[in-house]
Structures are given as structure tokens and as C-alpha cells.
């Protein structure tokens, strides 16, 4: 799943995955052009704060994650209307550092890959 700072960026990516969407809370449908126009309007009227972002699912559904809360899915992909959409955004693995040798290790790893110290 990818993360975007504006709805327009999310839509520009989503159009590579599918070409029509249903609004999650009504029966409105959007084609590529309609969704791009809506995104431009939305971005200019509702600028995002820095803790919020949009996500695009593998099938092209578009969700909003506001202030690190659960994802609110806005537009469902017509290509996969029953797609299993996650409620939380899984960030890319983060790096932390070994307390003994200082090497970068993937968060969640049990041992340092350099010196073997248990983390
Ligand atoms: Zn180490």
C-alpha cells in the first residue's frame, strides 16, 4: 500500500490500478476525469495537515488516514469492490540501532546482524 500527501497524488497513482470508483458512503460513481477534478477541488479546499495522508490499495481504492487514526476508505475500486481493505496503515520497516555495536537493524529483529547481540 502506498502513501500520499495529497488526494491528487493518490488519484494519479490510483488511475494506474483501475478506471472507475464508487464513493464509499453513497452510490456515486467516478470515472478517471471526475475523480481528478474532485481531487483538485478537495486539495485546494481542504489542505492536509502533516499527520494525515492518503493511501491507495493494490486494486486502486483510496483511503484517508487522519492524524494516525484508522484508515477511512473514501473511494472503492470498481475493479475489486470486495477487496479486503485494511483499517490501519502498515508503515515500511523502520531501522533502530544495536546497543552494543551501533549497527542499524530492522525493527522487530531479535538479534543484531553484525555482532549477534540479542536486542
Ligand atoms: Zn550489534
Please provide a written account of the structure.
- The protein has 119 residues and is α+β, with helices and mostly antiparallel strands.
- 18% of the residues lie in helices and 26% in strands.
- Strands 1-4-5-6-2-3 form a 6-stranded antiparallel β-sheet. It has a two-stranded antiparallel ribbon with strand order 7-8.
- The longest helix is centred in the N-terminal third of the chain and has 14 residues, at 32-45.
- The radius of gyration is 18 Å and the shape is elongated.
- It contains 2 helices and 8 strands, in the order E-H-E-E-H-E-E-E-E-E.
- It folds into 2 domains: 2-77, no CATH class; 89-119, no CATH class.
- Helix 1 runs antiparallel to helix 2.
- It has helices spanning 7-14, 32-45, and strands at 2-4, 20-23, 29-31, 53-56, 62-65, 71-77, 95-97, 104-106.
- The two termini are 29 Å apart.
- Zinc ion binds next to loops.
The 3D shape can be described as elongated
Helical fraction: 10-25%
Strand order of the largest sheet: 1-4-5-6-2-3
Name the bound molecules. Answer: zinc ion
How far apart are the first and last residues' alpha carbons, in Å? 29 Å
Number of helices: 2
Amino acid at each position: 500500500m502506498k502513501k500520499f500527501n495529497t488526494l491528487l497524488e493518490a488519484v494519479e497513482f490510483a488511475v494506474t490500478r483501475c478506471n472507475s470508483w464508487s464513493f464509499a458512503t453513497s452510490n456515486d460513481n467516478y470515472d478517471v476525469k471526475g475523480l481528478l477534478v474532485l481531487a483538485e477541488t478537495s486539495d485546494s479546499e481542504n489542505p492536509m495537515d502533516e499527520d494525515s495522508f492518503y493511501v491507495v490499495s493494490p486494486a486502486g481504492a483510496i483511503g484517508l488516514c487522519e492524524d494516525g487514526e484508522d484508515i477511512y476508505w473514501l473511494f472503492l475500486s470498481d475493479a475489486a469492490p470486495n477487496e479486503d481493505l485494511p483499517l490501519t496503515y502498515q508503515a515500511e520497516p523502520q531501522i533502530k540501532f544495536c546497543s552494543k555495536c551501533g549497527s542499524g537493524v530492522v525493527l522487530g529483529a531479535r538479534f543484531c546482524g553484525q555482532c549477534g547481540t540479542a536486542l
